[in-house]
Design brief:
The structure holds two protein chains of two kinds. Chain A has helices spanning about 10-15, 20-40, 45-65, 75-95, 100-105, 115-140, 140-150, 155-165, 170-190. By secondary structure, chain A is mainly alpha-helical. Chain B has helices spanning about 1-15, 20-30, 35-45, 50-80, 90, 100-125, 130-160, 190, 325-335, 355-360; strands at about 170-180, 185, 200, 205-215, 220-225, 250-255, 265-270, 280-285, 295-300, 305-310, 320-325, 365-370. A six-stranded antiparallel beta barrel of chain B has the order 1-2-5-4-3-12. Classes of the chains: A mainly alpha, B alpha+beta. At the A-B interface, helix 2, helix 3, helix 4, helix 6 and helix 7 of A face helix 4 and helix 9 of B.
Chain lengths: ~200, ~375
């Protein structure tokens, strides 16, 4: 069984590009460690799975930002994020379960990358995605499907026109504009004063 | 030059609220040439409302895209997570595996010898006449009788536990397990409720005096402390962690308890996430439990303590109830500072097979005897 060993940089780039190999490699290297840690802290395997996926997602989001620069080892960063995610989960379950204070901060040297800030950013983003999802729901199925087909599935206007039974691509495009401006109204009415990066 | 200016003006008039999202899209995708970029700048500079609309479009399109990408990523991670053989191969292998082939020849010879000798014994025994066989049979029955006897005695004493003047050191008992190596023990509240004296009998047969330091009658858990300051369950550290979260339906579990003088192992599964009458603080388990097993730890396959046995349903065979380990955490938090318990941070059982797990666990499970 020969397995490619990736460097931290390669893993980050692979993750940012959404490569399955990179995700598998990250699982192979760090999942067992996290599971063991979680089990020792009274967590279940299912908790570990949740925490790990969430932490990878944070890393994925950061890796996509051009200005993101990992100043510590990938493992250190991933573990720091996972730890905070688990503590937050515990805190949600009940104030009595949060860990002893000394455990919270053990040497927070991550250089330029602050897991704490990155997590805040992540949660804010999650909130926005949720708002977006609700806005799309409010927008109605035909419009939401059209926008998703174009922006998410990246289908061409010709394909969309065929799939949604518009007479031609130009028509579909007009429809798309209308949908987007309606979505804009709904979304920004929901989230007044929203500041995006 | 002239033509170009005309073109510019035409384009300027074209940037409106109606097509702003198209411009936004091309701006994000870096599809605007320098002239167009310049035009866009001009148009936005002169019209604040248009600028706001443009920015909103940019934000929204970016968010639509990244939300889609994030969903795809989640999906892919979930796929990788279930595709365990792609990444979990090494660590799921049992830690120690004898290479069977290597020992095949020696093993075969040894097995042959054993068989030969046992056959020889069998014939020798049989020759000795039927009598010896009968004796073994009676012996077995007598032992059964004595077990029955002691069990009914426990039940007996349970029914009249209000009389404290008994000379016998243990009138009834349950099971407990270590929270720390230095003598904090978790058990059921109902085991120690009306106790005059509490004794903890460890795996090596030694008996120690203990007292209650915390109780939660509602959850039916109590924490005891062994009086002896030098007491240690074992030379090694506590091998298990206490769960801070709950386990799901179908989780395989096992338990070690003292329904008799020796520890008894049982295994089963979580059959319902809620306990008796829908009690959300406990699980319903399908696992054998006998009198004396109250207070026994329930561990999951990784060797994490997830619950404490509290009782069973009387009209069915294996239906047992166990309170969540969370109740222990909650109780520990109520302890005064001088009694603070620092729970084990290590689970040394997760990668062992079952017999190894139980072997390590034995030292930390004790009988709790009360009079």
């Amino acid at each position: 069984m020969s397995q490619v060993i990736y460097s931290d940089i390669e893993l980050l780039e692979g993750l940012a590009a959404g490569h399955r190999d990179a995700v598998t490699a990250l699982y192979r290297s760090y999942h067992p460690v996290l599971v063991r840690w979680m089990l020792s802290r009274g967590g279940m395997e299912a908790d570990a799975e949740d925490v790990f996926q969430e932490a990878l997602l944070v890393l994925y989001e950061k890796a996509q930002q051009a200005e993101f620069c990992l100043t510590c080892k990938l493992s250190t960063y991933l573990f720091a994020v996972s730890k905070r995610l688990w503590y937050k989960k515990l805190a949600q379950k009940g104030p009595l379960l949060s860990p002893m204070d000394e455990e919270q901060e053990e040497g927070a040297y991550y250089g330029g990358t602050q897991p704490e800030d990155d997590l805040e950013e992540h949660w804010e983003r999650e909130l926005q995605f949720e708002q977006l999802e609700q806005s799309l729901e409010q927008l109605g199925a035909p419009c939401a499907a059209l926008l998703k087909a174009f922006y998410v599935e990246k289908k061409s206007m010709q394909e969309i026109a065929a799939a949604f039974q518009y007479t031609n691509a130009e028509n579909a495009k007009t429809q798309k504009y209308k949908c987007l401006s309606r979505l804009k109204k709904i979304f920004f009415a929901r989230t007044p004063g929203l500041k995006l990066k | 030059m002239l033509i170009r200016t005309v073109g510019l003006i035409n384009f300027l008039t074209m940037i409106t609220e109606n097509n702003i999202s198209d411009w936004a899209e091309r701006y994000i995708d870096h599809q605007l040439n320098s002239d167009e970029g310049h035009m866009l700048d001009m148009a936005l500079q002169h019209d604040a409302a248009l600028k706001a609309s443009f920015e909103a479009s940019v934000d929204l399109i970016r968010m639509l895209r990244s939300s889609g990408e994030q969903q795809a990523m989640r999906q892919m991670m979930a796929e990788v997570a279930t595709d365990r053989k792609a990444w979990a191969a090494e660590y799921e292998k049992t830690p120690r595996q004898l290479s069977f082939r290597k020992y095949l020849r020696t093993g075969a010879v040894a097995a042959g010898l054993v068989m030969l000798s046992s056959l020889a014994t069998y014939f020798a025994m049989n020759k000795g006449s039927q009598n010896s066989n009968n004796q073994q049979y009676t012996l077995l029955r007598r032992e059964l009788e004595s077990i029955k006897h002691s069990q009914s005695k426990i039940i007996d004493s349970l029914s009249k536990d209000k009389e404290p003047q008994d000379q016998h050191p243990a009138r009834f008992g349950g099971t407990g397990f270590a929270l720390t190596n230095d003598g904090y023990v978790a058990t059921n509240f109902h085991v120690v409720k009306d106790a005059n004296n509490i004794f903890v009998q460890t795996n090596d047969g030694e008996t120690y005096s203990a007292y209650i330091i915390a109780r939660d009658p509602a959850a039916d858990v109590a924490i005891l402390k062994v009086e002896d300051k030098h007491f240690r369950f074992s030379k090694s550290a506590l091998p298990y962690a206490i769960a801070k979260s709950t386990s799901g339906l179908g989780q395989r579990v096992f338990s070690l308890g003292y329904p008799q003088e020796d520890p008894v192992y049982n295994e089963g599964y979580i059959s319902s996430e809620n306990g008796y009458n829908g009690d959300i603080q406990s699980y319903q388990l399908e696992i054998t439990a006998n009198p004396g097993q109250s207070g026994a730890p329930i561990l999951d396959k990784n060797g994490t303590v997830i619950a404490v046995i509290t009782g069973k349903q009387s009209n069915t065979a294996g239906t047992t109830y166990a309170v969540h380990a969370l109740a222990l955490h909650n109780l520990i938090r109520t302890l005064p500072p001088e009694n603070t318990i620092r729970l084990s941070e290590n689970n040394r059982l997760s990668r062992l097979d079952r017999t190894e797990q139980v072997k390590k666990l034995r030292d930390f499970v004790c009988a709790v005897k009360v009079n």
